[in-house]
Write a structure and sequence with these properties.
Blueprint (H helix, E strand, L loop, with lengths): L2 H19 L3 H5 L2 E8 L5 E3 H14 L4 E10 L2 E11 L13 E13 L2 E9 L1 H7 L13
Parallel strand pairs: 1-6
Antiparallel strand pairs: 1-2, 3-4, 4-5, 5-6
């Protein structure tokens, strides 16, 4: 893979993350191809409109949401990410009223970039740890899965 393609694709992902950190959901979707598809832990495809709706709910629940980039690795048309997501629970989430709790969880992803746009995304967040921090799982419940 030409080194400039890797750098270009990583720059697209960095700009996407910067846009997320600014709270601009509409701006984020501009990085997506019209037929962008997301795959979560169950492997089922989720269309971009559904992804945007879920991201909007999450951003309203955690309005100070920040992504910290730990690594971006590019190969071919793929960029792998290792991130930390942090925010304060200030809006309703999963039926839970705001708790004011600060939360943090790991997010691993892989994005396929074609002509500067995300066409596919695979991502897994440490959602169970997030639920534990919000008080929806018993404290210490996840110790066996560290």
């Amino acid at each position: 893979m030409p080194e400039d393609l890797a750098a270009t694709n990583k720059a697209v992902v960095r700009r996407l993350i910067d846009t997320w950190n600014s709270g601009d959901l509409e701006g984020m979707t501009r990085f997506w191809a019209p037929d962008m598809v997301h795959y979560g832990r169950d492997g089922k495809p989720l269309p971009g409109a559904d992804v945007a709706a879920e991201m909007g709910r999450f951003m309203r629940a955690f309005p100070d949401l920040r992504l910290t980039v730990h690594s971006l690795v590019a190969e071919g048309d793929l960029v792998a990410t290792r991130l930390t997501v942090e925010g304060t629970h200030r809006g309703e989430y999963l039926g839970l009223p705001p708790t004011g709790r600060r939360v943090s969880c790991s997010l691993l992803g892989q994005l396929r970039i074609v002509d500067g746009a995300v066409v596919e995304h695979w991502g897994v967040a440490d959602g169970l740890y997030l639920l534990e921090q919000l008080g929806l799982l018993p404290e210490g419940f996840l110790q066996a899965t560290a």
